[in-house]
Amino acid sequence: MYSILRKEFNAFLSSPVAYVVIGVFLVATGLFVWVFPDSSVLDYGYADLQTLFNIAPWIFLFLIPAITMRTFAEEKKAGTIELLLTRPLTDGQIIGGKYLACLLLALLALVPTLLYYYSVYQLGNPEGNIDSAATVGSYLGLGLLAAVFAAIGIFASAITRDQIIAFLVAVVGCFLVYTGFDSLASVFEGSTAYYISQLGIAAHYRDLSKGLIDSRDLLYFLSMIVALLWVTRLALRSRNW
Questions:
Q1: 8-state DSSP, 180
Q2: Is the dihedral of CA 38, 42, 45, 49 positive or negative?
Q3: Can you give the pTM of this predicted structure?
Q4: Which of 80, 139, 181, 215 is the most exposed place for a label (fewest CB within 10 A)?
Q5: How far is CA 204 from CA 126, 138, 153, 208, in A?
Q6: Which residues of 195-204 are buried (b: 16+ CB within 10 A; e: fewer)?
Q7: Predicted local confidence at residue 223, as pLDDT
Q8: Which segments of the chain have a pLDDT < 70?
Q9: Residue 134's pLDDT is what?
């Protein structure tokens, strides 16, 4: 699995994909956090990074499918998937290696945003006037959100040989999982609306963004990732049916 991870990650770094993804993410978040007056931290008056954590999931919704769309679709189209599958590797190792490479690239895009935290920390009045616990929870939630989006993207790429179709399926899947249950919950009231909203990612992401690291939220994200990678394995195994 490590060999696959290294091969895939090096392929990202040797192509414009990694630099475009990281560049687009940083430019987009930078504009919203520091430039646009309606969302700028400098105009907001409060020392927090809520703007970053509100906008980042929407940017990831498009960027992560762009990362994952080639993982299996490109192998199928080029005819190298059979060569890969005949290597002494299990389906789980192949999927795990490709998945972790995509997730690592997505998380790499988050690293430079730590400068945003440092800047807001320094600009706070008094210095350090920022809710660090909520910030840590938000970064954790954003990382787990990226992990689920990457798993959706890997699955989308495994069921088609066309990268564009894989991208569109992944974007729609991420959108539905992130906002679909909240939209459905708005139709209902009371406990029914609550339980429906808990089926979606957004509710658990919001809880983590408050600095409340609950085992139920972590279990939800991990369960989603495992389930999506499992159905990806089934999609690959279907070649033998």
A1: I
A2: positive
A3: 0.92
A4: 215
A5: 31, 11, 20, 6
A6: ebbbebbbbb
A7: 95
A8: 239-241
A9: 86
